[in-house]
Amino acid sequence: MKLQAGLLALVLAGSLAACGDGGGGAGDADAAAKATGPITIWYSNNKEEVAWGKQMVTAWNTAHPDQKVTAQEIPTGKSSEEVIGAAITAGNAPCLIFNTSPASVSQFQKQGGLVPLDTFSDGKSYIEDRSGDVAQQYKSTDGKYYQLPWKSNPVMIFYNKKAFAKAGIDTAKPPLATYDEFLDTSRKLVAAKAAKFAIYPAPSNEFFQSWFDFYPLYAAESGGKQLVADGKATVNSDEGKKVAQFWRTMYADKLASQEKYTGDAFVDGTAAMAVVGPWAIATYKGKVDWGVVPVPTSAGKPANEIHTFSDAKNVGMYSACKNRGTAWEVLKFATSQEQDGKFLEATGQMPLRKDVASAYADYFAKNPDYKTFADQAARTVEVPNVPNSITIWQTFRDAYSKSVIFGQEDPGAALDGAAQKVDQLAAQS
């Protein structure tokens, strides 16, 4: 509830703020785009990312003593989105934030808090050359890029080999590819008491929780559709209803829990599977003997055809920045092939590059656990970059929770109702 209240405050604050790219008039923006000098940046408080950020800043500052970067972790708050929104409103956001949620970009843009990276002569070409076709998912509705696609954590199914062995299930190639196989395997796990639950996605109602239960499977089932396409909701399609019914069965048969869990159910052994990305590998090291497979589809698509949720965080340039010329050069330096390689080494997260698997072939040869995620990274689906994005996701989550998790309404009818509301929200500017 606190997170939702905080996000509501952010939305209200955004509605009072001016639209546009901020930073004064066009002349001021043009001057800022060429200005160089000291800048500030924020990055995540994840310790691996902090270590990467510190070396990146040191490397830049050593080569550019007249354009010094001062870096810090994002200030603590109820959510990073709320902290960033407040900084935009106060006019004291840093030049760059290496932890910008794609779901928040439309709101930050509406607040006048983001600089369109197309402002720079090589902005559009740099983004599209680096990320390839996936970059198109990150364009705003005005056709501009207000975020640089930076890193992803393609969501897949981790499974506990010890639990599977206890239930007499093949640990090398577990039957998890189709919905029927996944359900049968889940029932065996619970019946054998290999784990209390087969899988334990968070049943809570925060808007982002659907990114780790419904959305990955929807991306896979639909061949890569987003929640909203061409201004219309897509989730009440046949594919969306199949996914919703699959999860309804998981909850109805007590294979997934309706109770909120404090801790990590997969690490604790309460659940035999988890829906998560490669950032978790370091967390599971020495705690779980795990394997990984793509998310299931109704018919069992081949792995090389399966899409999933990206779980990306991107880089935004904020309109309070005066020395945007330096900020743009720092952004390119921090997302260069060399720095992306160092980021991959430090964190195991996938740079949003079109050539990630081949560009870092040596890394993946030495770290085969991550190779599967590099392959999956080529087929990721982002949250749609549309107005009222967070409100849209909350609207969907409310319907999903009521019907799929708690069985208080038919899932198909709930998705139809949610789609109508989403259409109205997506049409608003």
The unreliable regions are 1-26
Proportion of strand residues: 5-15%
Main β-sheet description = 6 strands, mixed
Q: What's the overall average pLDDT, rounded? A: 92
Cross-sheet strand order for the largest sheet: 2-1-3-12-4-13
Helical content (DSSP H or I, runs of 4+): 40-55%
Structural class: alpha/beta
User: Judging from the principal axes of the Cα atoms, what is the shape?
Assistant: globular
Q: What's the number of extended β-strand segments?
A: 14
Distance between the termini: 26 Å
Described by its quaternary structure, the protein is: single chain
Our Rg estimate from Cα atoms comes to 22 Å
Tally of individual helices:
19
Give a description of the structure:
The chain has 429 residues and is an alpha/beta fold. Helices cover 44% and strands 12% of the residues. A hairpin with a 2-residue loop joins strand 7 and strand 8 (232-233). It is globular. The two termini are 26 Å apart.
